[in-house]
Amino acid sequence: MRIKQISVFVGNESGRLVEMLEPISQAGIDIQALSVADSADFGIVRMVVSDTEAAVTTLRQAGFILKVTEVLLYEIPDKPGGLMKSVVAPLARAGINLEYFYAFVASEPGRARVVIKVSDPAAAERVLAESPASG
Amino acid sequence: MWEPQYETMTRDALAGLQLTRLKDTIQRAYENVPLYRNRFREAGITPDDIRSLADVAKLPFTVKTDFRDNYPYGLLATPLDEVVRLHASSGTTGKPIIAPYTAGDVAIFADLMARSLHSAGVRRGDVMQNAYGYGLFTGGLGFHYGGERLGATVVPVSSGNTKRQIMLIQDLGTTVITCTPSYALVLGETARELGVDLRETKLRLAVCGAEPWTEAMRTEIEAKTGTSAIDTYGLTEIMGPGVGIECEEKAGMHLWEDHFLVEIIDPVTNQPLPYGEQGELIITTLTKEALPIIRFRTRDLVTLNATPCACGRTMVRMSKVKGRTDDMLIIRGVNVFPTQIESALLAIKGVEPHYQIIVDRERHLDDIEIWVEVSGTVFSDEFRVLEELEGRVRGEINSILGISARVKLVEPRTITRTAGKAKRVIDRRELESQ
Lengths: 135, 434
Prior knowledge:
The complex is a heterodimer. By secondary structure, chain A is α+β, with helices and mostly antiparallel strands.
């Protein structure tokens, strides 16, 4: 399934993450998945939220620069080899480049969710339709 | 033109006028200012030795510290009761530089500012919002009285309170903004954030000065504020703004040579350089009464061009200030000017011209780090793209300066914006040696 993800540029200063998360929480927006990636200089916070539009407005008002990107969300079996067999291996076989992904446990027991950014989303959707992952 | 009889006079006639005025200035300085009298004696010269304009090279220089050493009234050439106004520099260290003006000086200041504003394209009927700071700084009152002399409608808003500035631009039908170039950018950006498109207002002209800026920054200002941006030149020590300004040709700043004698010297050897070569600008005032200044070392690196301008003015044209001899950073033996780094940044699409240079010394080796603000348009959620951007900035700086610098992308507004001059360089090497 294609979903919208917000990526935020966050400088590497202590407390900056709090300054980013606070207005989101105050606006009553739920963060459903989040990943922080950082270099020595800066970080990129990627997240999927309950109300993308409201989160974008809130963050822009707080002075953050951000980008909304389309990513794929899949549910996979939460067991050894689940991620490899249902997502990573099929995409690799099809020659689709995985730019980044992050995983989180779904509310349903025994299932996990992954957010995937790939070079070719349409091709990835076709490949994953035939894998144990469900979109 | 405001004073075509002077602005278009032949170079020969100008030289004659300058020599008369130079002799008078030197006589007054010699008679009334102990500093000059002592320096002349040390150099073994008297005012009578100045018979031609070239003889000015025999005279000793005046430097910034002379003002501090003779604070507050030591350089005054008239009795204090003839002084009707005092300005002072926005000095960040130590005592400010005091600039006294007689009634005659104040009148010439206003005339030269009117002449300058006219050259920039300001006319009677313009609404001129003056966002230079009012007070001791020469910019506020200088532009104010020049605008009034010209017959423009002057709005003395002073610096700061950007939202109010934008409201006034819209409500009063402001056609001309006068402010520092960095503040012009702040206005453009803030307006955009407030959802105001300055290009849709009556604003058409920005007269910017008080800090060096580049052609690329002009393009940014013009695009963000919907103006034609004109560069102007001035110094507290000499008069304030109004020493020189561009005409609408934007082909160099005309220096008002009927009031200021200018030279270019090699800042290392102190020898005169021909027009066209880059060197330090030296100014001798020709009409100042309260504060005649002989051969002031401006520390500004420029080139001069005395060929006639398409506008019809004959006054020499000065390039943009390419750097300051005292802002010059020496990094691993290489001379680096902040403006060079600005040019490098502006050559890269998506990078804002907001930067700060941090110089440090690690294991006895100079280290330069450049903080650059990322713009919303260039931000990508992929590291690869941002790292490529850092690489491009690094490469551009390397190709311009020939040194490698670390580049750090920072969030917008990380680097302090000021209503006055932007602080571009943080040199931690000095702190360590203290």
